[in-house]
């Protein structure tokens, strides 16, 4: 893994905290995260490395963070590509363990980093924060279960269509150009696929007016993609 780029503090509004589950801004974990500065990091910034002590966790405000695991042969395998609203490194911190994976920014990313010792000390003294953290952990597990269900129940073409729809302007039809800020390898990992199977599915989507050109996806008609997604039982 290349040498880490230096993160920098930036004056960005912390509105991305709304992505945490909870009814309002007074939710304990959300309020706690607001007490820490939001940092900006360029692509290639290493947040933590596999095997290192879990000394902090990270809330991803926006951007994309790739988690990788080094195999016995020394190769780095992409495990996931984590986007806005996620907490990474949290379970390792709560377990007092080492990071099981490495995490590195793929694109410009904003995040909040919370030291493990301060957070665990606060948890011991704040019952409301403890319960909210537990609720967030349960919510995260539910998201993982739901994502696993999608991998089993949805075709890859459906997952691609759903992802493209999430990036399109909120309109019913018409053409669109979707910029992909990361590599096809990272996109495949984000969808739970291999780069080869992603390429095959993208070729199949050409008959629905979807083409990939120079790091962007061209869509002839959003309505066609939405229809494909719904026909295949989108959830």
Automatic annotation (TrEMBL):
Pfam families: cNMP_binding (PF00027), HTH_Crp_2 (PF13545)
UniProt cross-references to InterPro entries, sorted A to Z: cNMP-bd_dom, cNMP-bd_dom_sf, Env_Response_Regulators, HTH_CRP, RmlC-like_jellyroll, WH-like_DNA-bd_sf, WH_DNA-bd_sf
UniProt keyword list: DNA-binding, Transcription, Transcription regulation
PROSITE patterns per UniProt: CNMP_BINDING_3, HTH_CRP_2
Molecular function (Gene Ontology), one example: DNA-binding transcription factor activity
SMART domains in the cross-refs: cNMP, HTH_CRP
Keyword Transcription applies: yes
GO CC terms of this entry: cytosol
Residues in HTH crp-type domain copies: 154-223
Limits of the Cyclic nucleotide-binding domain: 34-103
Signal peptide (UniProt feature, chain positions): none
Phosphoprotein recorded as keyword: no
Annotated protein name in UniProt: CRP/FNR family transcriptional activator FtrB
């Amino acid at each position: 893994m290349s040498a880490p780029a230096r993160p920098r503090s930036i004056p960005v509004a912390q509105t991305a905290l709304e992505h945490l589950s909870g009814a309002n801004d007074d939710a304990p974990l959300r309020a706690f995260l607001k007490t820490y500065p939001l940092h900006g990091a360029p692509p290639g910034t290493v947040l933590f490395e596999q095997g290192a002590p879990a000394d902090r966790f990270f809330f991803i405000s926006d951007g994309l963070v790739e988690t990788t695991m080094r195999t016995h042969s020394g190769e780095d395998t992409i495990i996931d590509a984590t986007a806005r609203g996620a907490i990474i490194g949290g379970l390792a911190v709560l377990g007092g363990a080492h990071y099981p994976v490495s995490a590195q920014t793929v694109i410009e990313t904003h995040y909040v980093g919370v030291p493990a010792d301060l957070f665990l000390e606060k948890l011991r003294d704040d019952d409301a924060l403890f319960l909210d953290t537990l609720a967030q952990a349960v919510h995260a597990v539910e998201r993982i279960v739901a994502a696993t269900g999608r991998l089993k129940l949805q075709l890859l073409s459906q997952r691609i269509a759903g992802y493209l729809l999430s990036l399109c302007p909120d309109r019913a039809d018409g053409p669109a150009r979707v910029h992909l800020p990361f590599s096809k390898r990272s996109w495949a990992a984000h969808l739970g696929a291999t780069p080869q199977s992603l390429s095959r599915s993208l070729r199949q989507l050409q008959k629905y007016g979807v083409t990939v050109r120079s790091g962007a996806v061209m869509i002839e008609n959003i309505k066609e993609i939405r229809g494909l997604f719904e026909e295949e039982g989108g959830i």
